[in-house]
Amino acid sequence: MSLTEDETFMRQALEQAHEAAAAGEVPVGAVVVHQGRVIATGRNAPIDGHDPTAHAEVVALRAAAQVLGNYRLDDCELFVTLEPCAMCSGAMLHARLKRVVFGAADPKTGAAGSVLNLFAEPRLNHQTRWQGGVLAGECSALLQAFFQQRRASQRAEAQRLHPLRDDAVRTPDAAFDDLPGYPWQPHYLSDLPALGGLRLHYLDERPQGVPASGFTYLCLHGNPAWSYLYRKMIPAMLAAGHRVVAPDLIGFGKSDKPKKDSFHRFSTHRQILLELIERLDLQRVVLVVQDWGGILGLTLPMAAPHRYSGLLVMNTLLATGDAPLSAGFLAWREMCARNPEFDVARLFARGNPHMSAEECAAYNAPFPDRGHRAALRAFPAMVPDAPEAEGAAISREAQAFWQQHWRQPSVMVVGAQDPVLGLPVMRELKGLIYGCPEPLVIADAGHFVQEHGDQFVGDALRLLGAKVS
């Protein structure tokens, strides 16, 4: 068969893909050709049919089998606009197709060479010839246009549900498109009393078939990070059967950003977190904290001890104002005051040379200009540094709670290269948390130890899982 004939049949598959798009389905279309003639067509229809198997290829295979009166289609060819997934590839192999031709490659689920290649698997008792890239540009363009329109509709709906306050800015959603290692769907709230209409973003991920023993890992980030910081830990938490909730503090990530530095106060951010926990009715919580996630987060359990079942604490402190802040922190605060427009991506790259440029850039995504950076300017000065400073009194109450009332298991992980909240600060914190064992020290990690999460998250989960009840 010539390439011209392949293109002819692929164009007919594209017609089916356009029909799928018109019906609100992901635009994938397929045709089955028998002896040079199209005998069956199919388009994606899992939504319309409430059928997870109703991919274009499977629909077309079913129709072709009916036409020929045989599930064996060994003299047939299938043309599809997108590289088949493992399910569809398995069905094609079972049908004994003579040949499969696809348009656009699918780097996420493609089973004809992109992720794996079932068609070339020698252990299977049948191999089907395949070819990719026919009219790939047109097939890809249709998919891209569909998903762009879908994202635009979702953004319009989010704006309708959560209108932007006049005294705040909102990072364009497009800034977060295609970030490496961050595939999770956003969730938003704007009706918590402490928010006053500001939109708060959070991740809320649950594994399929959560076991009864699953916990909720509440992951709190610090400055200048956002929930992206936990992307290397979330998959392991989900794989272990746990729910993961990871909010972006107001002023960070996908959450709204008040224009004025003065919005940011210790008590305001703490109250928002307390209300979020109540609204989501989080139970059996393992509190996961670092940096400001700990400065704020370590004051939360005493408000509702029955909700908490464990602690994973990393490079942070309880800022009670009773002792001078470390020299490293004071240097950080001075740097932020002198250089309020510091490059967040460069900061991450300097302390985490193993990160890619794209990963570092993802930390800059929430802050496209000076108007989005009020939290970055305000947070360093907010750390309580005297007994009368805001947040110091509640932190002293928290210190008493962790010493006298906390009886749940704890795990401490420390990035040894952290010049701000490293081992000396963390050993002091260890002494304040009842029963806290010796820390897991990550020798090559700095302040953002979560960027080395793949080195320790498994051990941390096992230690907590062996003790949490």
Short summary:
The chain has 15 helices and 15 strands.
What layout of secondary structure does this protein have?
Blueprint: H1 3-22, E1 29-34, E2 37-43, H2 46-49, H3 56-68, E3 76-82, H4 86-95, E4 99-104, E5 129-131, H5 136-161, E6 168-169, E7 187-189, E8 200-205, E9 216-220, H6 234-239, E10 243-247, E11 257-258, H7 266-280, E12 285-290, H8 292-297, E13 308-314, H9 327-338, H10 344-351, H11 357-364, H12 374-382, H13 392-404, E14 410-415, H14 423-430, E15 440-442, H15 453-467
Parallel strand pairs: 3-4, 4-5, 9-10, 9-12, 12-13, 13-14, 14-15
Antiparallel strand pairs: 1-2, 1-3, 6-11, 7-8, 8-10
Describe this entry's structure for a reader.
This protein has helices at 3-22, 46-49, 56-68, 86-95, 136-161, 234-239, 266-280, 292-297, 327-338, 344-351, 357-364, 374-382, 392-404, 423-430, 453-467, and strands spanning 29-34, 37-43, 76-82, 99-104, 129-131, 168-169, 187-189, 200-205, 216-220, 243-247, 257-258, 285-290, 308-314, 410-415, 440-442. The protein is of the alpha/beta class and 469 residues long. It has an 8-stranded mixed beta sheet with strand order 7-8-10-9-12-13-14-15, with helices on both faces. It is elongated, with a radius of gyration of 27 Å. The relative contact order is 0.08. The model has no long low-confidence stretch (mean pLDDT 93).
